[in-house]
Amino acid sequence: MAIQRFSIIESTLREGEQFVGANFTTEQKVRIAETLDRFGVEYLELTSPAASPQSLEDLRTITGLGLKAKILTHVRCTLDDAKLAAQTGVDGIDVVIGTSSVLRKFSLGKSIDEIMVLATDVVKYIRDQGLEVRFSTEDSFRSEMDDILAIYEQVDKLGVNRVGIADTVGVANPLQVYKLVSTLRSRVSCDIEFHGHNDTGCAIANAFCALEAGATHIDTSVLGIGERNGIPSLGGMVARMYVTDRASVSKYNLPVIGELDHMVAEMVGVDIPFNNYITGITAFTHKAGIHAKAVLNNPETYEILSPKDFGLTRYISIAHRLTGWNAIKSRAEQLGLAIPDTEIKALTAHIKEMADQRALTLDDVDSVLKTWIDAHPIGGA
Could you tell me which residues are beta bridge partners of residue 196? Predict the structure, then answer.
């Protein structure tokens, strides 16, 4: 199924707050919310106001900012939580309840019939308040499909805006996600949200398959931070959608991803991984001679993402034994040095020999090129 539309429910201020290194102050939450709003996410999801007095006050602060994004909060399936959330000025309430046998036995102690009664009461209350409501099963992929489909069909009839599928422990694979979402798509008329954890490295692939199967909303967080290994990163999900259909992410201010990644990384005390989507230090770095030559001729040969669209630039690594003469020539031109191709090739061979003896820096390469110019002051052979 072609992806018709999708919205991002950005959960750095909810799921991301569950990351072990996250302890956001009110001021930091405001910065994150305003920057995500500038990026253009459709929704911001915040921690339940029932979590702590400060969570309640922070939620009220964010709802008072006048942002373009809709503000949501994520609560347990209880009337008390829903009533508290409804008093904070949010645009919608995300309700969740565990449905797997593991969670029902060891966490909630509720039968499926009891869950359906709770769901009905809570969803009706939120709808009566004129708020958006999403109802999600937790640990969906370790739940009985017949059980969760029955719950989804019931809340769909009650008028929920979205139903949510949650791969709470990261157990699902893309084929399982596609099967469950496509089945659900045939049974409900409301929107479908997917929340997937990355414990086994499938979070982005699973989220993408959910969209292909008919989901309409995807949960993300900046850098993918969250409980344990987190959820799809905002940058990674955008990268996947950019490659699928560049027009689908034209609604977002893509260069802001770098600002978000660096800001949140500093706040939670982590480094941006070297291979991080878009903002990793090597994301647009090319080293092998064949790669460098092709990229210099046509960047799309080895770049599926254009760094320019994200406010970034590519880097051609040349100070090593794998370098090619086209890359060395490009560097000479950057330095304004006119060196014939035959000499460039000889200098490249010399640089390779040097690199076999020791690690080189870009200054070492520049020194080789400038030394040749100094020995040929008339600008040629």
Answer: 167
